[in-house]
Amino acid sequence: MKKLFYAMLGLMALAACTQAPEKKVMARFVPERADDFVFENNLIAGRFYGQALEGNPTSPGLDIWVKLPGKLVADEWYKGYETQSDEYYHHDHGGKDCYKVSVSLGGGASTPLIDGQLRFPATNYRSYDIVKETPEKVVFTLHYPEWEAVDGVKVSLDKTVTVTPDTYFCEVEDIYTFTGRDTLAIAAGINVHAAQSTVEKQSILPTAIAIWEHASDQTFEPEDGMLGVAVVMPEADATFLTEDGTHLVACKRIVSGEPLHYSFGSCWSKGDVKTAEEWFALVDKQ
Questions:
Q1: Which residues make beta-bridge pairs with 176?
Q2: Strand pairing of 107-114 and 117-118?
Q3: Number of helices (H) and strands (E), helices first, in the chain?
Q4: Alpha-carbon gap, residue 217 to 64, rounded angstroms
Q5: How far apart are CA 86 and CA 84, in angstroms?
Q6: Using an 8 Å Cβ cutoff, are 223 and 99 in contact?
Q7: Which residues contact 268 (CB under 8 A, 6 or more apart)?
Q8: pLDDT tens digits, residue range 117-174?
Q9: Can you give the residue ranges of every domain in the chain?
Q10: What CATH topology corresponds to 26-285?
Q11: Quick check: 52 and 40 in contact, CB under 8 A?
């Protein structure tokens, strides 16, 4: 009996050791919802728009989903979208989609800045690769096919995003390939929602931009929380508000094929980051 008892203990210990580790990150293609590409860690979530959504909108913008710290929620919210209501994730289920992107950079995308204007891609991302996927790290690349940014300047983009747990930021490597110019200025930035007067505070540092704002889209359910959004670009040439007042950007001039590195981040005041001062301090550390 003792031998059997210890054998059972051994099997239980082995099962505990081989149990799959808790998953703290995810990223996937979402064909069930207009070709979204969603990602999240245990603190933040977001998505990029795919081909099926082109025209509604065609936008490179990063859509922020606010959520409480802890579990992964994207798959649950998409299931609610499919089975209960196409407005499911616009209502609070421990977080929601309350950030308005439209045709903009949203909460941290990038695009060429030519003659003072942001020149958005002609399509949404059209293909993707999952470069690495473990319980603690996921890396994916979105491919934006060639478009004509201005007459004679043709551009394509491969955007690689690295998602890790326990941080409000994701790392980005953008590789722009272009013809027609020796160099291009690339702007990574934040839609400041000036039309809705949602921006309460903003910060512009030499290599970072950040905002603290009211929820920007209250179409489905009013949101009384605040959002923090930021872009950090260590090698930025400049940070500024665009001429039309729609975006805060960090900008760097590159040659074709040169990797551009930066990070984007977000938070929700109903989580652990309660104030603009706390958010700006986190951005400064990043």
A1: 157
A2: antiparallel
A3: 3, 18
A4: 11
A5: 7
A6: no
A7: 66, 67, 68, 95, 225, 226, 227, 228
A8: 999 999 999 999 999 999 999 999 999 999 999 999 999 999 999 999 999 999 999 9
A9: 26-285
A10: Beta-galactosidase; Chain A, domain 5 (2.70.98)
A11: no
